Amino acid sequence: MVQLEVFLQTLISGILLGGLYAVIGLGMTLIMGVMKIINLAHGELMMVAMYIAFWLFSLLGVDPYVSLLVTIPALFVLGVVIQRTLISPVLKVDSILPENQVILTVGIGMILANLATMFFSSDYRSTPVSYAADAWYLSDYWRSSPIELSLSVPWTVSFGFALAITAALWGFLQHTDTGKAIRATAQDKDAALMMGINVERMTMVTFGLGAALVGAAGSLFIPMYYLYPALGGKFTLIAFVITILGGLGSTQGAIIGGIILGIFESMTATYIGMGWAPVGRFVIFVACLVFLPRGVAGLMKRS
Amino acid sequence: MLKVEGIDVFYGDVQVIWDVSFEVNEGEVVALIGANGAGKSTLLRTVSGIVRPRKGGITFLGEPLAEVPPYRIIEKGIAHVPEARRLFPDMSVEENLELGALKPAAKARRADSMERVFTRFPRLEERRRQLAGTLSGGEQQMLAIGRGLMSLPRMLMFDEPSLGLAPLLVEEVFQVVRDVRADGVTVLIVEQNVRQTLAIADRAYVLETGRIVRHGSGRELLEDEEVKKAYLGV
Ligand SMILES: Nc1ncnc2c1ncn2[C@@H]1O[C@H](COP(=O)(O)OP(=O)(O)OP(=O)(O)O)[C@@H](O)[C@H]1O
Ligand SMILES: [Mg+2]
After folding, report:
1. Residue to substitute in B33, B40, B43, B193 for testing ligand 1 pocket (most ligand atoms within 8 angstroms of CB)
2. Alpha carbon of A246 to ligand 1 centroid (Å)
3. How buried is residue B114: exposed, middle or buried, by Cβ count under 10 Å (0-12/13-18/19+)?
4. pLDDT for A249 beyond 90
5. B141 vs B234, higher pLDDT
6. Alpha carbon B158 to chain centroid distance?
7. Percent share of chain B, pLDDT over 90
């Protein structure tokens, strides 16, 4: 019974974590799909959003979930500006190889991390919200339950927002002309141009959206995570693994990939040890490249 | 209607079009014929603004297109049914058609236009939710043409619409071209199926390694000894 309880509790934590990972992965996947580059500044963008949420909380007492109203538009604008002023000019030069275009995003990430260290120091920050340790217990709702499970309040609320954001993105991509134009741009740029789609504008909007998504993830993570300037790298790697796992550019794949990674990390932490999550991440990454080179999306297509 | 005057086109440093001029008048079917690699697709892509001429100019309905960005060409009334169809493979038939009608004027009549496409191509209606990438070659070509029609064009450019299709479907494609013209849409067509193309073309231009070497009415060219030898296999 205890074993089942531990397993289920680990599974729940994994799914909650995976929902947030999915939002991060979706952002990178969108950018990958349209621009065909891996945005290696992705985690750093999330770090920027977390500082925004942190300062809003510390200075103005704004709840991290309310800060979504700021981080999402702010990161959208930051993404558009980065794409317009830094990435787009480099993408236009044919003689710069795609590998080197990716290096540009590494540079952007480093600059953001260093700016954060300069302005905010490398101290660990957090937003001690009143509900940080609150949880819902199964036994409160079902007195005679044979096992006890709990749902952390901040994790669950963050997960709920992640679901809502994912659903909103889905609706946007499926049902609006702009969403369809973005998907068309990802599938065939020249054909998109012939249909009258302003491909350059769509590319900008996509980078903005990708940044806004990972920005939202920043607001959703800050109630549970410590913040420091170098935290970006870890989340860039997470987004990268999800993008590969999902099958480069597939949104459905990214959602499933995020959940798989969340569960896998949670299981690794419970059954192997807290410190092993990064190793697990790396294992899943390599395994995916070897056994599933086209990711979850490839699997779905095959069936 | 369309006037191409003395254009040179390059890919990088390689010139592929040399001082080409041609004209399409309202209501005509004009054909461009030529061997593989002659530059036929390049000419259509230049009209669409995907590649830019280094010299010379293009005007449509009297308006120069040099400054018009490629995504604005369709608004001017030019639709392009490209070589190899270039559908959006992971989108449904319906979505592909919708993307043909993004601009306000075409969008306002989207439902209507889609009905017309479905009436003309009932197979597409049966498959409206199917992904374009999973359609048969013939269905894909019909979808590409339907998508072109969705923008309510004044001129429709076809790039090898019969390529890779069974004889029966080739017939169907040429019938569609005639219908399109009958509906008052001007046609510029590139085809390897020279005999059938010249039979429906009012006028045609022969392109050889990036230069126009002949032009005349469809009938004249069908009788032309050089054309017969080079393209009709007689
Ligand atoms: N994107 C490109 N980059 C470089 N060269 C190109 C490109 N596209 C076409 N070319 C070259 O330009 C020339 C003309 O090509 P184009 O596709 O216009 O010929 P085409 O007449 O349409 O031939 P086909 O009948 O085979 O379709 C060819 O020599 C081709 O190799
Ligand atoms: Mg061609």
Report:
1. B40
2. 35
3. buried
4. no
5. B141
6. 2
7. 94
Q: What average pLDDT is seen over chain A?
A: 93
What does the alpha-carbon distance between residue A155 and residue A159 come to, in Å, rounded to a whole number? 6
Q: How many CA atoms lie within 13 A of B212 on its CB side?
A: 18
Judging contacts by C-beta atoms under 8 Å, the chain A residues touching residue B103 are 196
ipTM at complex level:
0.94
Query: What is the rounded distance in angstroms from the CA atom of residue B113 to the CA atom of residue A55?
Result: 53
**Does ligand 1 lie within 6 Å of residue B34's CB atom?**
yes
Q: What is the pLDDT of residues B67-101, one digit of tens each?
A: 999 999 999 999 999 999 999 999 999 999 999 99
Spell out where B126-180 has E strands: 155-159
Quick check: B69 and B49 in contact, CB under 8 A?
yes
d(CA A252, CA A240): 15
Residue of A126, A79, A124 lying closest to A105 (CA atoms): A79
- Read off the pLDDT of residues B29-42 as tens digits, 9 standing for 90 and up: 999 999 999 999 99
The reply to whether A184 touches chain B by the CB within 8 Å rule is: yes
Q: Which residue's CA is the nearest one to ligand 1's atom 28?
A: B37
Q: What angle do CA B3, B9, B10 make, to 5 degrees?
A: 170
Give the pair of three-digit tokens for residue A154: 């901040």
B159: which strand partners? Answer: B190
Percent of chain A with pLDDT over 70: 99
Rounded-to-integer distance, Cα A34 and Cα A205, Å: 10
Cα–Cα distance for residue pair A261/A28, rounded to 1 Å: 15
Q: Distance between CA atoms of B175 and B110, rounded to whole angstroms?
A: 24
- Asked if A39 and A87 touch (Cβ cutoff 8 Å), the reply is no
Chain A residues inside the 8 Å CB shell of B90: 183, 187
Location of structure tokens 């949420």: A53
- Reduced to 3 states (helix: H, G, I; strand: E, B; else coil), residue B96 is helix
Q: Token pair of A60, please?
A: 């103005």
> Model confidence over A15-53: pLDDT tens digits?
999 999 999 999 999 999 998 888 999 999 999 999 999
- Specify whether the CB–CB gap between A186 and A61 falls below 8 A: no
Q: Give B205's strand partners.
A: B32, B215
Confidence band for B234, pLDDT divided at 50, 70 and 90? low
How many CB atoms are closer than 10 A to CB A247?
A: 25
DSSP-derived 3-state class of residue B161 = coil
DSSP notation for chain A: -HHHHHHHHHHHHHHHHHHHHHHHHHHHHHHHHHH-S--TTHHHHHHHHHHHHHHHHHHH---TTTTHHHHHHHHHHHHHHHIIIIIHHHHH-TTS-HHHHHHHHHHHHHHHHHHHHHHH-S--B----TTTT-EEEHHHH-TT-SS--EEEHHHHHHHHHHHHHHHHHHHHHHHSHHHHHHHHHHH-HHHHHHTT--HHHHHHHHHHHHHHHHHHHHHHHTTTS-B-GGGHHHHHHHHHHHHHHH-TT-HHHHHHHHHHHHHHHHHHHHHT-GGGHHHHHHHHHHHHHHH-TTHHHHHHHH-
Residue type, A275: G
